[in-house]
Amino acid sequence: MKNFTLEILLHIIGVGSASGLIYNNDNLMLIGDSSGYLYEYNIGDKNLQKHALMENPSENIAKKQKIDFESMVSYDNDVYIFGSGSGELRNEMVKINTISNDTVATSDLTPLYTSMADFAKIKTKQFNIEGAIYNGEDWFLFNRGNGKDNRNVVFTVTGKDLVNEYQILSNNFKLPKINGFQTGFSDAVLVENKIYFLATAENSKSTTEDGRILGTLIGRIDLENMKIDFTKKISDTQKFEGLSLYSKDGKNINFVLCEDNDTTTLESNIYKLSLDLKR
Predict the structure, then answer these.
(1) If DSSP states are collapsed to H, E and C, what string results for the chain?
(2) What is the per-residue pLDDT for 205?
(3) What is the pTM of this model?
């Protein structure tokens, strides 16, 4: 088991329950599953900017209307932001250029998401993408197993793009329970040839309805054999839904995490999680 420390790194006013983040050189990008904005926060000067991801964006979109942005990944100078696929309005991917901060493209991933669910035999109501990784060749998309069948699945999507030409593979994972409730993937990040992931538990069998938060664990998957190296519970009370690399040396690896606290208050804590890799 890995020793760890978890501490609040900073507090941001103006960002609500966060569902994903990317850290790079003292700059944070964040999304929220009820928000129509990409937030950019500079840690040094504490400046917060908002970039619209849709027409007429709002900070607290009603559940029935929200696009449900749950995951994002950066590659080169672009950021890709994914809807969860857990409803008809939640199948969009938005691509933003980080130099111009302009939306490059908005894509409808309905055909891809339908193909993924069919390939892995996941029922429509239990399909819920909450993590994304891109290494320049392959996309890794993480289905959160918080439906009745607890289908935690990592999809590997390879091809020309995610709309017209792609191939799909899938790997099923059995994750630990927290306080008797099944955990489900909530985000992931690739570090060298290892996938570090978060998985959360709550007292709900629905992919769309929130339940009582029961905690979060972190784990690691070896990319070569797609097997879990370890898991470690890091909280009994918090639902962490964003994970990004902060720093790494030979002995320790540090991440930044964001928390979805299921409220409409526009305040967010960003946490630092440190793992001792030698233990």
Answers:
(1) CCCEEEEEEEEEECCCCCCEEEEECCEEEEECCCCCEEEEEECCCCEEEEEECCCCCCCCCCCCCCCCEEEEEEECCEEEEEECCCCCCCCEEEEEECCCCCEEEEEECHHHHHHHHHHHCCCHHHCCEEEEEECCCEEEEEECCCCCCCCEEEEEEECCCCCCCCEEEEEEECCCEECCEECEEEEEEEECCEEEEEEEEEECCCCCCCCEEEEEEEEEEECCCCEEEEEEEEECCCCEEEEEEEEECCCEEEEEEEECCCCCCCEEEEEEEEEECCC
(2) 58
(3) 0.94
